[in-house]
Design a protein that fits this description.
5-stranded antiparallel beta sheet, mainly beta
Amino acid sequence: MPSYEVEEIFAGKVIVSHKIVAPTPFRAAKLATNRDITLRNSEVRWIRVFEEDRRHRAYEYTVIERPQLASRTGPS
């Protein structure tokens, strides 16, 4: 399987970097972050994935943010 370097980026700066072995760049991003991901649009926090053997090719993703449900407490 190919190796990838996965970088988590916030405001233009790399905040975390991972080396991941995975079948695809998409799967490498998911494994590195342990979150659901999608293609990047223009988010401030995002994920860049480089193929280890071809560093000139990069893939860009972002984490899918799930809305948090308010805690539901019934009347006492």
